[in-house]
Design brief:
Number of helices of chain B: 10
Number of helices of chain A: 8
Radius of gyration of chain A: 18 Å
Order of helices and strands of chain A: EHEHEEHEHHEHEHH
Strand content of chain B: 5-15%
Mean pLDDT of chain A: 91
Number of strands of chain A: 7
Structural class of chain B: alpha/beta
Number of strands of chain B: 10
Shape of chain B: globular
Largest sheet of chain A: 5 strands, parallel
Strand order of the largest sheet of chain B: 2-1-5-9-10
Largest sheet of chain B: 5 strands, parallel
Helix content of chain A: 25-40%
Distance between the termini of chain B: 112 Å
Helix content of chain B: 25-40%
Radius of gyration of chain B: 24 Å
Structural class of chain A: alpha/beta
Low-confidence stretches of chain A: none
Oligomer: heterodimer
Distance between the termini of chain A: 31 Å
Largest interface: A-B, 43 and 44 residues
Order of helices and strands of chain B: HEHEHHEEHEEEEHEHEHHH
Strand content of chain A: 5-15%
Mean pLDDT of chain B: 92
Chain lengths: ~230, ~350
């Protein structure tokens, strides 16, 4: 990609955005973006400044951001025009395990004595850790089309679905567009077909990313330039 | 002038006489108000419940690094503000304030399976939120559904059981004699329905000013259930010095307060005399008796100032005997934390590899 070229689509997120980047290319779209680890996302190593999205306290990520700016020839990359598809805000692998350190699961199960909490508690818990991501998403959405994509529904583990739904609810109640692939890509078992998953069983493949993007575009969520007819 | 004949008073210590022990000593020099009748292990675990004054006891136990039982800790990494808003860490389980012996009995019956969570009345407000009338203020805004309310009630009932099953000492602060019940079901309410949660129904909701006999019986029954589970449990009863906010007795609130505290004090004293497993600790006397001259009340003459709480706690810890050998093995690190930390590290490695791969191919 030469300097100053605007891609069709920008991707911003954690490791789950890799499949979206790869999927975009499978669909013949030009896509570029910034991905960094869920740990850094969870720890809030970012901000939105006058120069736009800025990684914080993450020199390696900063280097990638600078390289992206150079490729695109703009400073405020994620407000430069192309729609943004993002996996920010979930990072469930950092959020859910510590929640369970005192044995809690949510929701409660009839056959389990594990302690549980209310949805209101979960909302407060998630909001505390995801308020920075919500603020970032809202600020980006004020400047360009942003679609948040929930992570691949790859497994059924205690509490993960509740957290996933809570993050989705948090973003949607703030007026953000969220696409959850679980709504139309899971079978009777509630998980994704393993053919869409990489060997680690957690991350989606390029085909998965393409399928997600196809649905998002069929729904017109990325704007008229990236809309597809419904199949 | 005749010499005094020998009588039972001549051999009593100075603490038995008002002039030297109280009038001449002053409130800050009072001594010997309480000493624990038991030698407890140095790592004795304490569970605490009761009215709002009881919260001071839990805070002070943890501040002095004694083993306070937190049988219902918040989920891992719960932010302190969220834990506080949802009433974690106030009592040994999330029961909310337990004001009366009748409430304590209800909780103990829930904990031991005599009463199921389904027996507790729930109320739905106009916004659709559901409130548990045994602990109507446990969540900032009630529950999303009755199922959710009952699920968390089950969690707390199990925690309440753990808190007396695993403790050496159960400390209960008696707060009120006045309460409300459902005439038909016998459900005890933490607050009068209609005050904060619920809707008052004069045909259903009956005022109870529990008397000496009923309170004593409820406490005996509650403690009996606890001792079935933990025969070695020691019990400390204390009476909150905080006056009533309001009385439905028809009496002046000052009279209602004095009657309430007097009955509770008499009950606690009676039970402590009849059972060596029970001791009475004099929170009430330290704050509200003549030598204190009401100095430990806020201007509203209800809440206790920090200096008063400090004095109460000073007497409590001075009287505690923790000279016994420890009985609990050293706590091993929770394997769940190590396991999830390791899993997160592994997942981080995978995620980093994917991110690096992306950056190489952009």
């Amino acid at each position: 990609m030469s300097d100053g070229t605007m891609p069709d689509l920008l991707v911003l997120g954690d490791s789950h955005s890799a499949s979206l980047l790869a999927g975009a290319r499978l669909l013949g779209l030009t896509a570029d973006g910034l991905t960094f680890s869920g740990a850094a996302w969870h720890e809030g190593k970012f901000a939105v400044t006058r120069a736009g999205f800025e990684p914080r306290n993450a020199p390696a990520v900063r280097q990638h951001m600078d390289a992206l700016r150079k490729r695109m020839g703009v400073t405020d990359v994620f407000a430069s025009g192309p729609p943004v598809i993002s996996t920010m805000g979930y990072h469930l692998g950092r959020l859910v395990p510590p929640f369970g350190w005192n044995g809690h699961i949510v929701p409660a199960r009839d056959d389990d004595d594990a302690p549980t909490v209310s949805q209101a508690f979960l909302d407060a818990y998630v909001r505390h850790y995801r308020e920075p991501h919500l603020r970032l998403a809202r600020r980006l959405a004020a400047r360009t089309r942003v679609v948040i994509v929930a992570p691949p529904p790859a497994f059924l583990r205690p509490s993960y679905q509740a957290f996933r739904d809570t993050v989705t609810g948090l973003f949607r109640s703030a007026g953000l567009t969220v696409h959850d692939p679980a709504a139309d890509m899971t079978g009777a078992g509630g998980v994704l077909d393993s053919a869409y998953l990489q060997e680690d069983g957690i991350h989606g493949t390029a085909e998965y990313g393409a399928a997600v993007l196809r649905t998002v575009m069929q729904r017109g969520l990325l704007g008229p330039a990236l809309s597809l007819e419904q199949a | 002038m005749g010499t005094e004949q020998a009588n039972p008073y001549t051999s009593l210590p100075p603490t038995a006489f008002w002039r030297p022990a109280v009038a001449e000593s002053g409130i800050f020099a009072l001594e010997g108000l309480w000493s624990s009748p038991w030698t407890l292990p140095s790592d004795a675990r304490f569970s605490t419940y009761g009215s709002c004054f009881a919260q001071h006891i839990s805070r002070n136990l943890t501040a002095r690094k004694l083993a306070w039982v937190d049988a219902e800790p918040a989920p891992g990494r719960t932010p302190p503000a969220v834990a506080k808003a949802f009433n974690y860490g106030v009592f040994s389980a999330r029961t909310g304030n337990i004001y009366t012996a009748a409430q304590l009995l209800a909780w103990t019956r829930l904990a031991t399976g005599q009463l199921g969570p389904d027996a507790i009345e729930m109320w739905q407000d106009d916004a659709g939120r559901v409130h548990d009338l045994l602990r109507p203020r446990i969540e900032p805004d009630g529950f999303a559904s009755e199922a959710e309310a009952r699920a968390t009630l089950r969690t707390t009932a199990r925690a309440f059981r753990r808190s007396f099953a695993e403790a050496e000492v159960f400390i209960f602060t008696l707060g009120l004699t006045e309460g409300w019940e459902d005439r038909a079901t016998g459900q005890v309410y933490a607050l009068c329905p209609g005050t904060g949660a619920g809707r008052f129904d004069p045909d259903r909701h009956v005022f109870c000013n529990y008397g000496f006999a009923r309170i004593t019986d409820d406490l005996r029954r509650a403690l009996a259930l606890m001792w079935d589970v933990n025969p070695a449990l020691k019990v400390i009863l204390t009476v909150s010095p905080v006056p009533l906010v309001a009385t439905a007795s028809g009496n002046h609130v000052l009279l209602a307060t004095m009657e309430s505290k007097s009955v509770l004090r008499a009950v606690a004293g009676e039970l402590a005399r009849e059972d060596a497993r029970i001791s009475y600790f004099p929170s009430y006397e330290i704050i509200a008796s003549p030598p204190a001259r009401a100095a430990f009340f806020e201007p509203n003459l209800r809440l206790v100032v920090p200096e008063g709480v400090e004095l109460v706690m000073r007497h409590f810890f001075a009287g505690l005997d923790l000279s016994g050998a420890p009985v609990h093995p050293a706590t091993a690190p929770d394997p769940r934390i190590a396991a999830t930390t390791e899993a997160m590290s592994r997942e981080d490695l995978v995620c980093e590899e994917i991110v690096l791969d992306v950056s190489r191919h952009v």
